[in-house]
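Re: the multi-chain job from yesterday

Posting the exact lines I submitted so nobody has to dig through the queue logs.
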Amino acid sequence: MSVQYREQNNIGFIEFDQPGSKVNLLTAETLRSLETLLDEVRSKASLDALVLFSKKRDVFIAGADIKEIEHITDAGEGEKKSKAGQDILNKLEDLTVPTLAVIDGVALGGGCELAMACQYRLATFNEKVKIGLPEVSLGIIPGFGGTYRLPRLVGLAEGLKMILSGKPADGAKAMKIGLVDRLVPSQNLNHYLDEFINDVRQGKFSSHKYARRKKKGLAAILGESFLARRIAFHQSRRSVLKLTKGFYPAPLKAIDVVQAGIHLTDRQKGMDLESKAFGALAVTEISKNLIHVFYISEKYRKLSLPAGQAGLSGAEDIVPRKIRKCAVLGAGVMGGGIAQLLSSQDIWVRLKDIRYEALALGLKSAHKIFQQALQKRRLKKHEVMAKMARITPTLDYNGFKNADMVIEAVVEDLNIKEKVFSELDQIVGAQTILATNTSALSITAMAQKTKDPSKVIGLHFFNPVHRMPLVEVITTSLTSRETIATTLNLAKQLGKTPIIVKDSCGFLVNRILLSYMNEAGRLLEEGGRQTAANSTSGIARIDKVMTDFGMPMGPFSLSDEVGLDVGIKVLHILEDGLGERFKPNGIFEKIYAQGLLGKKSGRGFYIYAKKRGPNPQIQKLFSTKSRETFDADEALKRMVYIMVNEAARCLEEKIVEEPDTIDAGMIFGTGFPPFRGGLLKYADSLGAAAIVHELERLWEKWEAERFRPAAYLLKLKEQNRKFYN
Amino acid sequence: MERVAIIDGIRTPFCKFATDLNDVEAAELGRIVTRELIERSGIDPARIDEVIFGNVTQPVEAANISRVIALLSGIPKTTPAYTVHRNCASGIEAVVQSVMKIQLGEGHCYIVGGTESMSNIPFYFTKHLQEILTQLSRAKNVMSKLQILTKLRPAHLKPRIGLELGLTDPVCGLIMGQTAEVLAKEFGITREEQDAFALTSHRRAVQAREIFKEEIIPVIPGPKYAKAVEADNGPREGQTLEALQKLKPYFDRRSGTVTVGNSSQITDGAAALLVMSESGATALRLKPLGYVRAYTFIGVEPSRMGIGPAHAIPRVLRKAGMTLKKIQAIEINEAFAAQVLACLNALESEHFAKEFGYKGYAGAIDRSLLNVNGGAIALGHPVGATGVRLILTLLKHMKRRNLDTGLAALCVGGGQGAAVILER
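And the result, structure tokens for all chains:
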């Protein structure tokens, strides 16, 4: 049984302990058991207190069961599920016995809502304590009274902030805003629990939970006046729109529900507003997609070695080695970023470059990132100092010998990288893993320059390293399972989401992304001309097609961020390895020849000066054939379907095993819109037949081989299947 | 008794007061050399038994600076650390501490060093101002606060300069330069001799730029990280005798001979050494730079503190059972040219040897063996670090020239002398 009741010293304990699981979830079944218990307890008016308690380590209740939400297909059904939960929590709230939730770990979603339905909340100093309502990240809103109770408990401003961001509060924050009534040590918890119950009995707390919060400063003067509330709702709406660009309905709906309910005194009316909105959101495709992304995210964040192949040993006997010290070769944008990321996780870094100027720049950029964390109060001054102290610069290989891993981030040139690997081979210890941050070059070729190629692996970070969640872990046929396990472990330690990709030209993400960037360039060349009649630059128009689709930035803005020189270089590598379709389009070559590389040169597709905007110089580079108009719908299809086609080829070539991996790569590596569920989830929403049909039409229309549908796609169409079964 | 080996060492560039290393605190300088020593030697930090640093100005924000350095350098939290202060011989003291501990069997492996950021010595409030501020913080109401404030006089705001206070001997009342004047007058050291000595120091230090690269780890000072500081900035390429002669005496304006040109420079820097028992070094197959043969400290008249080496040298030779002739290279710290020259005069004097019983252990010092790569007049004197720098520079020189024995000596503010004999 996942819920148990016992009594001791006239105190009732409801204990949550879901069998066979590390965490407790608030499943429909758990709720039903809880209801039965509550009905029994109701008659025991003489109890001193009723304590809700979890027997799991570091977890109170981790949330509702996402599977139950995922399977809601009818808005009315969703509304009913929400109501059922609300009613049970209301029962808890309405008990005359003082109720108390003891939070010694995670209390999220339904767990947080359950705790809020209690009269009192006691949390511990356990650093795993996290209390919050993350529902909006799944495209829904809290459904068990969270939108009603949280703003009343912590105030409108804090309540809205927590619901809209989905970010949980730690113990100290929860105490500060009034979400919990006291913080106590986990050790000797029973003693502190008794003490608390005693204090409750002696009337040290107001018995009305919404009156307990101490108002301070401006809020105390203004109170929660009508005007203050209006301003809060207005600002919340504005910042949500700015952040989500209107693609995500859940936070806006949450504001509506809170706004309509905040002045209500009739709880049931507030609850009804919530459950109705919950039901409507739960059935949306966006919510289903976000749940899909959540699963992917959980899967890859925790990715460990896949089970052993036949004849090989399984994952269980391979212990990942702990990485304490890394050497990083190259202090450029990537090397410097990697050094910063490593040191942020307290790994020692030996940073090598060939000039002190480069090392100084690497340290400077690392320090800048730490400085930003300091300003955002994520780090303290002494922590910044200690983390910077972990990076030591060097011009020679001193200190490489005892590194657990070397990460190479020198210039993208196979000859130079091969030379680096044969040098490293002479220097490092037998245990040292040699990783390369190459974005496209052959890792097998580098591995063959070493005595022990089983220690060589690709570890491809994305720029900017500290912000992009994805890393591609690229394995060759020679890479040992221990090397893979250790590298995956490091990625996790660094807070990154790893995907495993087989060594092949361009790996996964760059290969798909550059097919799209190159297509954007072709579209620009064909129809980017700007005239008096059409005053919007083609650059901005094409970028807008993609930002309207939901990409965080358009292809040309992205190119400017990364640098066109990098893009052209990788395109050439892809062209050599994969063929004609990756030949850089003419306009890219022309712009590159003009040195308009992007942000780093001040000018690229856009101008990066006081007056920002599309760069007029590019207009002069169009061929005379360039038209002035373009079909936005076809442009979108060309850019997105070419990615789908390339992704299908990657599956066909078994560069990755599953469509999940591609969606994870595109979402966490390129910012592909999560509300679309990922590239292949999106493709599935269109169907293989429609995509093949359109690709064939484009192939014919433009006489371009690149649109020829991949065999994998044709097979899906033929078998009437989807990427995801 | 176990012989004590010095495995390797490293130092930062030495940079003049308020120049290239202005932004780098003493703890950070010490951290840089310590971590670099760990990286270059490849020593497992868990093997280190203790960290001992010498430091004179002891920054309040890094109490027990040695512990701060150790923790920031990746030495395990369980490894202890302490800081020593013997004024200008603090660095030597740190080395000697490790020698004694190894010989006592306390441990096998020590990181010792010295660090000083003379650019970061604070200014202090006057006692008057401090009292007024204390009273203010205790005052209960606005009226009494105002009343206290009326006691404030402009003179109370005059800062007390920490650097100046540190360089003044509270017992004899003289600032260090004045003690050099005392010796110059007593031994009749001329201005010309002092300036010529200073010129040699600069010429030799300039010449040694290339070989100093072996012992220097360039520093990229944060928070700007604008450039790497790769070399000492004290030695002057174009130094002429004429330019030195033009300087006015600084400590006795009317009849003195000690100028800022023939005195050591006020400088920031740090140095560190990896010290091990000979058996420990052998077990790890490490090739030491050299060994510590003997050391000594001796007290002298505070107002004549610069004469310290003249007493420490014969005493350390006697302790080692060696004569001056056996010594193939000598470093005497150049606090002041006058003071070094006074020591040379004294050591050469039979009367001096007789008076103090140094017969057989004193004598003339071959100037071609003395401070062959320049000294503190050119390189600067970051007080806590200098002793370690002398040993490091001397050992690297001995290795380069394949010499067996070397001696390093310093005068110490407050009236002491220190000396160490090294061998290979």
